[in-house]
Design goal:
Helices cover 45% and strands 15% of the residues. It has 294 residues and is an alpha/beta fold. The longest helix has 18 residues.
Amino acid sequence: MRSLLFVPADSPRKLGKAMTSGADALIVDLEDSIALDRKAHARQSAAAFLSETVAAADRPYLVVRINGLKTGLIDDDLDAITAARPDAVMLPKAEGGASIANLDAKLAVREAIDGIADGHIKIMAIATETAASLFCAGTYAGSSKRLSALTWGAEDLSADLGAETNRSSEGVLLDPYRLARVLCLAAAASAGVPAIDTVFTDFSDSDREAFRRECGAARREGFSGKMAIHPSQVPIINQAFTPTREALAAAQAIVDAFAANPDAGVAVVGGSMVDRPHLARARRLLARAETRKS
């Protein structure tokens, strides 16, 4: 998935508009965008939206961001939305593999009650929203077969750290948040799941170029997609994370070179020497392109 668009669960109008945004996934939000006294209404709205949409043709991937394990709200969230069969839930303020195993167990019970195949609902986790989470980023591997992606967040982390801001006056991430970003990327690679880059909170026209640059940097560093907070960000994300024809041709040339000489440790492609890490990257790029076609 390239683009994952947040939409507040208590707004049927915004949910309907998001369906035409072009986002690969919608994150129906029960957490930060919903006031405490609106949680019950938002759960009902989310369940109704999922029930109406899940069987639609050519729909986006449907994710529900539930409330965190420590909030006392997560069980009510899952009771409300599991029967509507979302594709995945997003766990905020995750703290390592133990939190994923905990959520896995909660989902397994509800899937059994609702007659849903075990493991149908996947888990995406926001892996860096608390100070404690940074110390257990390496524990996601093997935590659950449901784990399908890791992402990171800077807003809640900055609050937990007591920081005034998470970016410089030039819009550059400060050191604690660059660390969190790298830990998310490494944690996802260790767990064998995609890493999704965090949101860019300023969606004004004046920062459109800065947003493009951040998307491009995330792709180059290894992220497979980026979350969005406004529909206007979706086309920019999709463009940034869609491999160009030139990039696909170059990747295919590397794969072909090694296929012609399978025992070789290195090959020459276009006048440059490439080795097995280049081959692994080329295969991942081509696989990502195939996934987009299917």
